[in-house]
Amino acid sequence: MNKNICFVTATSATVDAFLKGHINQLAKHNNVTVVTSLGETPLALPENVEQINIHISRKISVWSDIKSLICLLKLFLNSDFELVVSVTPKAGMLSMMAAFLCRVPVRIHWFTGQVWVTQSGWMRSLLKWCDKVTALAATNILTDSQSQMEFIIKEGITSEDKLQIIHKGSISGVDLDKFSPDAQQRCVAREEIGVGSNDTLFLFLGRLTQDKGVLDLAVAFQQLAKVENDVFLAFIGPDEDGLQREILSICNDCTDKVYFKGFTDKPQYYFSAADVFVLPSYREGFGTSVIEAAAMSVPCIGSNIYGLSDAIIDKETGILFPCQDTVELQHAMSRLARNPDLRKAMGREARLRVQTEFSSQLVTEKFISYIHSKMGQ
Q: pLDDT value at position 48?
């Protein structure tokens, strides 16, 4: 018998990037509704998936949040949902509260990182309290990594009996057909960036923000470029904090070796060009970009924080370094720049791990099984 299932996110990009595979499979035998802030065109989902536009602000906005909560309450009261799944912090808090008040039987929130980790003072307390409210209103909590689960328990967000991860972690896994080594694509991408076949290209791909550690990366690369002539650095992603000018100022002696490109909907193209992926982030729930790079046989240097410590096996699929330690970051970059054989060995191990543990097909199968278990199927 078909079940009525609802997914709620703050942005349609979250659905597009992480949930489409899960929704496509569930929609084959269930009535699925997606609630998010839709753009001008609907999401590319099966025709039988209902898409409802409810604006949910990612930032704190009291009146907007109240309006969103009222819209969710009306929707849940007038629908017969048996299960609601939420992703992203604000969507989680509002939808779990609304679903609780409307007595939706199964309420699942998926934590993919905690925004309050890098905050301090009253803002940290407020955001942490919001996560506690979300967890209290939910019947079940998912996290996308084991280390994040342990962190949530340690911080008192919720109890261990509510928590679970899907298989080995990750929210959606990796499409191995899309993310696969491609020699021809590599040549084209490296030519665009201006990197020679014998040069070492370090890649950052994601939002250019302080929390992603991009300024630390600039400092480490500037020092590395002083002693290594054939190294290059590419930043791919939207400059949300307006950091490009500051990055170039830090890299004042080697700006000719630094490349910028804004948002891309083809991350695999730039991963194919890279020799090493670098993610010196201050907070991550798991690090999807790490396993996407790994699927393309690209090792990763990442900060040793919860989430990334699950995505990277230190000294096997990449290198972990102390968060915000630019000297150790430089040492890790130098080590891989000088050892192409080590890079290739780590890349092979990284791809093998993704193939066996993080394929999107496998993660979706495990998620569907989890959903069926919660609905008593």
A: 95
